[in-house]
Design brief:
five-stranded parallel β-sheet; 16 strands; single chain; alpha/beta; 18% strand; seven-stranded mixed β-sheet
Length: 417
């Protein structure tokens, strides 16, 4: 009996060891996606969490359907300091050191260190940096950055495209009280580039729009009262608030709503997209407008994604990085179905030839910048690029008001009109 028991236990141990080794072998065969995600940064955590949620949803869907060519996808997540070159490089090197097959990143605030770290290993790096500097780097050195792709158009369209959109908003029923545009600009490179693009579009408008005051702010903004006084003094028809931190823009919305500038259109650049904005604004953002150069559409495919996302993560859904994270994994999987994920250059070449229709638009990278064109400014075909969306807070929800092909609703007069 003792011998039989030992034999049985020995067999069980061998079976467990065999199962363990099989599990390790299966894990070793996984396709790894590096996801640098800000978890302890003072800003950007909401966006980065949205991105990770979208990535996770896509991975789980693909794995449930059998994976990619029989292999499972697995996310390797590491914390990243998006505000410093050192923090960015450290996170990227951690991921390349783990031999990930691609890096899918929402964004960093200083693009080149991240790009250089990925380029050093050749790892395909897909990012939403929304940066003209990133595009210019790729264009200037295509050999070095051949496997680096920006999934959205540049931040310049936030400013330049917005001024162009004003004509469409007037056609939709908004009538400006005057043609002055007052810019409130934060000091980081990202917002400075956007401010310059607004000013360029104004200068090219032939007098249709006039540059009003340019008011500087410094992160973190503790009190918006001086800015509000400047806005009242200028009484501009359009107020372009060139800042991106959701909590601070929500504080602006509350202070503005308490003492509004009558009849002025208020545009909050991008920040309201972050999921905490509406809750923090507590109803004060009603009627305010914001934009994004990559966002989840409200068409059939977009609605299906929104429903799946809300079912899993709840209704506090950001419109931007949820869908773009999801799309990025899906397009990578499409490429990996026909290529060896370990052959980075072959994967990069396949991405350049790819046309992928996702929930945020159509991704193509067959140009010198390796980024999709911006609809409607670089392509008139809504199915040929990633759209610059304008949204308005209506009845406590974000609603697309432009471009016309994707609009859910028309612009409504704000409560202070």
């Amino acid at each position: 009996m003792q011998i039989a028991r030992r034999t049985l236990l020995g067999g069980m141990a061998a079976s467990a060891l065999t199962g363990s080794l099989a599990g390790r072998a299966a894990a070793a065969d996984d396709i790894l996606i590096g996801v640098p995600t800000a978890q302890s940064s003072p800003v950007g955590v909401g966006d980065q969490k949205d991105w990770l949620n979208g990535v996770t949803l896509a991975i789980d869907e693909i794995n449930a359907a059998g994976g990619v060519a029989g292999r499972k996808l697995r996310a390797e997540v590491t914390d990243i300091d998006i505000m410093t070159p050192e923090g960015t490089v450290s996170a990227m090197q951690t991921l390349t050191g783990k031999r990930v097959h691609a890096i899918a990143s929402a964004f960093v605030l200083i693009p080149q260190p991240a790009m250089d770290a990925a380029a050093a290993s050749g790892t395909p790096y897909l990012h939403g940096n929304t940066s003209i500097a990133s595009l210019e780097l790729v264009k200037s050195n295509p050999a070095k950055y051949k496997n680096i792709f920006q999934i959205d158009p540049a931040e310049t369209w936030y400013g330049y495209g917005f001024v162009r959109y004003l004509k469409q908003l007037t056609a939709a029923g908004w009538k400006p009280k005057n043609n002055n545009i007052h810019i409130v600009q934060e000091q980081i490179s990202y917002t400075q580039v956007i401010s310059k693009s607004v000013q360029k579009a104004i200068a090219e408008s032939g007098g249709e729009w006039v540059l009003g005051p340019v008011t500087d702010i410094q992160f973190p903004v503790q009190d918006w009262s001086p800015v509000l006084r400047a806005l009242h003094d200028s009484d501009a028809g359009v107020m372009f608030i060139d800042h991106w931190v959701a909590a601070e823009l929500a504080a602006f919305a509350q202070q503005f709503a308490a003492d509004p500038v009558k009849g002025s259109l208020v545009y909050l650049q991008y920040g309201p997209s972050q999921p905490e904005f509406l809750k923090l604004a507590a109803g004060s953002a009603e009627g305010m407008i914001w934009g994004t150069v990559i966002g989840t559409h409200a068409d059939g495919k977009g609605k299906d994604f929104r429903s799946k996302y809300i079912k899993r993560y709840g209704d506090n859904m950001g419109i931007v990085y949820t869908g773009s994270g999801y799309d990025t994994v899906k397009l990578l999987a499409t490429v990996w179905e026909k290529t060896d994920p370990s052959n980075f250059d072959t994967v990069g070449s396949a991405i350049r030839k790819l046309r992928y229709e996702g929930v945020c638009g159509t991704y193509t990278f067959d140009n010198a910048e390796q980024a999709p064109p911006c609809h409607p400014w670089q392509t008139e075909d809504v199915k040929a690029g990633i759209s610059h969306l304008l949204l308005q807070v209506q009845d406590g929800q974000h609603k697309i008001i432009a471009p016309a092909e994707l609009a859910e609703v028309k612009i409504k007069p704000a409560p202070w009109f």
